[in-house]
Amino acid sequence: MIRSPFTVDLYIYAAHEVAVWEPIWWRLRQRGVDAQIVVEPPGMNRARGSVPDPRNGWRDDKTSGRLDDLMDQNMYETVCASLQRRGMGWLECARLDADAMLTTSGPGWFSAYQGLRIRAMYGVGAVVDSYGHGPVNNGMDLVLAHGPLSEQAIRSECPQTKVEMVGFPKWAAERRTGRAKADARAELGIADDGRPVVAWLPTWAHNSSLDRFAPALTDLASDHLVLAKPHHNNLRFERTRLAAIDPSILVLDDLDTLVPLIIAADVVIGDVRSGGITEALLGDRPVVGLSADGPVDVQGLLAGIETAVVLCDEPQELRAALHSAMRPDRAVERRRWAEWCFGPAGGDDDARAADAIIRRIDEVRRSIDAGPRLIDLDRWLADAAAEDAHELRASVVSEAWPTWSSDPRLHHLLARVAAEADIPTLEACSRFVRLTGDLDRCPLQTRWSDASVDIDERLSAAAVAAVTFADEGAASAFIELASEADPTSYDRCLVAILSYEPSLLPAFTANAASTRDRRDQLAISLRDIGAERDEIDMLLAA
User: How much is the pLDDT for 159?
Assistant: First the structure.
């Protein structure tokens, strides 16, 4: 059988991602993969982010509901210009049927994609609660971890997620060949006037040193060449904070990667909760970590990081911290931590990332080609502790398609079933069926018994079969049960019917869409799960 080339979308929402995707994109294309950068313009791009409130200490509060589109016109033009400089083309519309999509974020923005979801890290914080190690990985079919630190942390926090350690592809060329300071300074247009070069990498929101340490950096600029690279969210959301940077400091606000800046520097100054201080270790540069507010020992840092990164609590102590960081005996610890955070310095990071992506897609295709495997839902749901069984069943249908409950017990159960059956993740199976409608080639089919259980449990089991596995019989049973149960369950059934059984639409709409208000709610639900406009119109007109 001749297989078509793998298709991979690398989705961009901010300028810093261009440097993350570039080496992976090139390697995938060298291997015959149809890899495309996707830059959806403002209004189409799905990425949204929190807006720090200056009245509340610039806190990054994602629970407040104050979210903005991350791809505004300025960001769009910046990203496109960066791609053009690198000779890279891009698509302005996502290919929702691609074999895989890559993101540096979580799966939430990408519900319309029907293939595998793969996450690549763009750095790692020297903190125990690093963003890249937590729930952002749930729902991913593969995570490309940097080094042993990230691989172990993600496996521990997200045991249901497949993880591969690939290094840091953005640094692959530097790790292969290295580059002289003089060359990096020439690239940045920096004249060597004999002063030590300091790279200042402030982060954003409440973790930023911008406000507290700007005067100390101004003082340092009297006898050092200080280069400031603001965080992209400083530029996007916090322009007013940049006024704290004195004109004696050279601001590189159009730089979309830290690599040449770190190589050009004699010493790097970052914030303790920023990935900039660990990335600086890859350049083997002395590093100082600044506390945005309060003692460093309450920042939740990784134990022992102070052997490689000199920590600074107070602005008046910055010069002493700089002197301490440049001691020759710290070099060994810096290199040890660089390997712990980013893996061995073999320089094949980009190739390892590309190969991991290809292997994952190939696993899924081969599993699909192998034909269906029968899993008894009642058997594996019953494996849960008795007191958890009902809650686990309910949690499956409590979330909007296609996101699973965040309950870690459920994730563990799903992962175990997938492992036992030697199939890709259950969510990947369901997305495949929704895309192709080919139930015979679905890697997983299900059956559930008609045992005497209460209606909510039967409804939940039917919902798993109907929505996740597109089982026709279970879908029909779901419609019958839905008329007797909580109407909020309709949305899960709706997707199954809409995607797999159009002939069942009349029966469904008779039960679920009898009022105008309910029709409006269904339309909103459909848009959230990425249904096509003609599908929505067909349902509401039924």
Answer: 84
